[in-house]
Write a structure and sequence with these properties.
By secondary structure, this protein is an alpha/beta fold. The protein folds into two domains: 188 residues, Alpha-Beta Complex (Spore Coat Polysaccharide Biosynthesis Protein SpsA, Chain A); 194 residues, Spore Coat Polysaccharide Biosynthesis Protein SpsA, Chain A, CATH 3.90.550. The chain is built from 16 helices and 15 strands.
Length: 438
Amino acid sequence: MSRPRGSPLLRVVIPALDEARTLPGLLTDLAGLEVSHEVVVVDGGSTDDTGAVAREAGAQVVASGRGRALQMNRGAEGARAPWLLFLHADSRLPAPARTALARWLSDPPADVVAAWFGFLLDGDDAFWRLLEAGQRLRERLFGLVYGDQGLLVRREGFERIGGFPSLPLMEDVEVLRRLRRIGRVRPLPAHLRTSPRRYREEGRARGWIRNSLLMTLYLAGVPARHLARWYPARRSSAPAPRDVVLVFAKLPVPGQVKTRLARDVGPERAAALYAGMGRAVVDRLRGGPYRLIVCHDPPERSEEVAAWLGRSGTEFWPQRAGDLGERLVHALAVALGQADRVCVVGTDAPDLDRDLVAQAFANLGPGRVVLGPARDGGYYLLGLSEPCPALFRDIQWSTPAVADQTRARARGEGLTVVELPPLTDVDTLADLPPALRP
């Protein structure tokens, strides 16, 4: 299949409704896709920053009425790319999936009209593994595929069948049925990770039983419009905590983290110590009455960061390019666009815990900044209730002057500084707790 000169090989279509929290991860994954592509986010009437988040990541944003089939068809309109990939906004496209997709598109089988990824739920719960096994069996025996697995389809084939049918649910099942009538379909050799949030919101067992029953009834001939009453549309967004904790973390690569500590214990040991401290800090902060978001560097290695720090109760945002001050300004601005109060912390203060974070939130309010000073002159926590870029301007990062300069910037902006107890953050051998020293 040829394509017009200058047009991409692939159009990625993402239907969205109030997905500002989930889109950054998927859009970051797509930025690492080594295929000529364009991304179209189809907004079904969001009340959050879905459109702004998508545009900032370089995606096209088009408006649509609400409904997944309607939105996906809208996103495919006017496409010139020979391939379309439909993804849910709460999916992740990890590196193996990106590689498999690129290889497929470099030499696709001539008689295959559509393909999909393996089903993988995000999280470590054994129940998710049970659902995955059930889906593998369902796929093998009956050829049934979830929309959560993505759909890669030739544009010509998609147009030939008239796109997604106008159904309130089961559009993913029906579109694959129709595609099978005009060509072969087959799985891709990689997995797409998807969020189990609907199961969490509605109850795991209840969701599984309901989905199985609805699928059985649909395959038995019950019209989708009659089944839709038992599958209510997902709320545009579950009420989110109005507090956010941002954890700034760097992947523990030897020679790239804790370089001063590495002079005493070697780069491998320093990276291992940093990895252990970072995981311990995140584990202590997990489960609080706030959103816990890891802002990671490098931005393209979110899968490795998630494997290190754990996915449970945690979101992952890539850090923006720039110096530390610019990255902090950007992350705080995005978070404060979604929350009332935000605390940003690091991963190298072993004594940081939820009690200190709660103390910080309790002291936050208009005209205030909360500072958790580190004994080396930096800080382990900074809290704000409104953006203040001046706090991070012209700071001599990684020096003993950081906290004092931040206090001075705050005073210059007319802010009151509320300070938490000082803690030690680990930069040298002398900073290590006795239990961790060689």
